[in-house]
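ARCHIVE CARD
Drawer: 12
Card no.: 0347
Subject: one protein chain, sequence and derived structure
Cross-reference: see card 0346
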Amino acid sequence: MIKKIKENEYVKLVKELLENKRTRALVKLVLWGGFFLLVFSIFDVRGTRTSKKELSNPAGDWKSMSNYKSEVTFTINEETYILNSIRNGDYEKLTIGEDTYYLEQNFLYHLEGYNKIFIEETSLLGYDLLKLRPDFLNEVLRNSKLEYTTNYEANELVKKGYSISTAKFVELYHQSIITDNTFMPIEVVEKNNQIVEIELDLKEMQGYSQTMIQTYKIKIVYRDFGTVTKTEVE
């Protein structure tokens, strides 16, 4: 192998140029320049990788939770809507007012009498129900900036405030790229290192798809982790 390298025509050329006093300095300059370029490129790659460490790290195993009950409050302008959810894995029962819905294997159905009627989209009140789940919201928090932390020792609660760029949220939600310089606030409440509440102010994002949006907030309160049976979601 070493012999083949020595016999390489480019290696011979460099060797001859180095032996020539008139070209020696220039060749050394080029070789050192190539060396430093390689070093700088390595450090640049490392810098890109370490930037990921700046992502937030949401509490506990919340991101993988798929068995819980929750109360979701939508505040849209002057109106408030309460959506109650009972989830066991890929099956979820939701009630809003007198209406009952089911999410089964990521498909949405509306209960009409004794029949489940398929709905083409999984959205209610202008928001995708699948993106109310911890796995998606965990990704949102990972791409958010932690702004503050407040500890309440009396009830062992920790409140954290985050912000995420509207453009990044739209990218995660719609898988599309927009140009937007605004930010959306998110507030999280943790208890025993577990997220029990999360509130998102989505006014900036919803303003793109809905007219006359002055307020659009979603607050989710979780409870009864790991206690929901299959019969409760039927």
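Annotation on reverse: The first helix runs from residue 2 to 7. The first strand starts at residue 67 and ends at 76.
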